[in-house]
Structures are given as C-alpha cells and as structure tokens.
Design goal:
Length: 327
Amino acid sequence: MGIDIGATSLDIALADVTGLILQRRSEPTDVHLRPETVLGRCSELLLELTQAQAIHPPQILGIGVGVPGPVDFARGVLVAPPLMPEWENFPIRDFFKKTFVSAFVVVDNDVNIMALGEQRAGDGIGVDHFIFVKIGTGIGAGIVSNGKIHRGSDGSAGDIGHICVDKNGPLCACGNRGCLEAMAAGPAIASRAMEAARNGSSPNLSQMRKSKGGAIRPEEVNAAGREGDQAALDIIRDSGQMIGDVLASLVNFFNPSHIFIGGGIANFGNHLLVAIRKAVLNRSLPLATTHLSIKFSRMGLNSGVVGAISLALEYLFAIEDNPHMLV
Ligand SMILES: [Zn+2]
C-alpha cells in the first residue's frame, strides 16, 4: 500500500507485488490535526480498499508512507516538522502495524517519494542523476544520485526550503528569516497577492479578493496571471527566480542531468518555468547546464502515491534478500 500525506490532501493506493495499482482513494486533509486523526483516517481508507479487493489486513506485505516534513529515515519518525509540530517523534510505523500486523512499514518525506515515483513511472525512468523539486505549501527536493535516493546521514538531504534567500526576509515556520519557502512557496505568493490587492496595484486581484471573501489563494494568483495581470505575473516570476537561484547552487554542487518540478504550484505554467530556467542558466556553470533539462513533472498527483508503493516494494524485496534487516 502507498500513502502520500500532503499538507492538505491524502492519496492512498493498494497495489499488487508488481506495483500495479488496484484501487485508489484521495481526499482533502489537514496535517495541523493530530497525527492519530490523520493516520486513523488513512487506516480507515486502507481498510476500505482491502475490503473492496476482498483482502484481509494481515495479507498486506508492505506500506510506504510519505509525510510533509523532515523524516529520520532509520527510525521512521518526523523530527521538528515546522508544519506539524504535534507529529514530532510520533511512531507512524507502530500505528499502522496495529492493524496491518504483517506489513513492513517504511516512512519517508513526501518529496523523496515523489522523486521515487518519477523514477519508477515518469520521465525519470533510466535517469541516474536528477532532482525532483516540490513547490506547494512548502518547498523541498528529492535527490536521485547514481540511480538511488540520496537521503544523507540522517534523512534531511534535499530540504532546500530552508536555504536562506534574504536574511531580512519574512519569518519562516522554522524560526529563521527569509528561507526560500517563506519567500517563494504558495503562502508567500498568496500573501504578496493580498498586498497587491490591498494597495491597488492590481485591480484584477482586488476584484478576486472581494469575490473570495477577503482571501486570495495561490490558484487565484495563477488565474490572474493567465489573464495577463501584471502584478500577478511579477509575483510568479519573482517566485520562480528565487527558486531558480537556489537551484543554480544545487546544479553547481550536484550536476544533475534533469530537474523535475512538481507540487501544487507546478500548475502555474510557463511564466514560472521560464523564470526558474533563466535563473538556473544565468547562475550555473556552463558545463553543468549544457545537457541540463528543467521541466514540469508530467505525473501530476500520481508521483507521490506511485513512489510510496515503490518505496514499500523496494524494502520488501530488500528484506527477502537480507532477512537480518528485519529488526
Ligand atoms: Zn525556514
């Protein structure tokens, strides 16, 4: 089974041992809720899927779980997750083991499983060195190096959302100022759009703010941009440039052949992508960019859940080969 828990949505799937998805369910969630509430709902949905396929819970062999925060991969727990402080050290594996007693449960962060999904079923097939960037409520990266996910020593590799862009910038959920995430992710885009609506620099956004009861979401900024609203386009381009500047450093450091961009903000289309590309090309070394491809992931909402299943399968077969891993 694969579980992709995003900040605002749940995606759950049941697959056979070849990774073929048999049944799938998605619904909105809110990770600010307690872990018992969100994971309890995941368990209910998983049970519904098993019932629909006439499978008993003990027959489930593996569960891959993606969560939107820093994961200590060896222990399978979140450590100081800015979006969801109540999840700190919550035993996610044990929670699912109560119902799915035979399952091996693997927990990873949401961007790593998206990178795995891209590698398994997207344009990342056969690509040995790539970065998957998720831009949504937060910003993070999954790094595939030599064909394998690079998690680093403790699991925090790729957490690019907290790289400092402006020391005097707005306060980030992590407690520092001017992190990429606080400057360029969905909430930052929405808050800059609110400012443009308030100060009258965008009549279009002002109108949207009124019709939406006083709030603007990133989707509305995107819609305004599509209609040619200059303030909205500037906000989107600025965001793309800041993300591109950080990616340029990663390109110099890691020399990937591909960068795939996914997450909610990836729907923003060409203005965002062009700004990201321009910043990367301007600031990276020519040798690193000659063959570099930067594009949106074409897997949309599928990469997370496909990757979660891929993660479960990877560990399932690794254990078959090395039973001592089962501790
Ligand atoms: Zn931060």
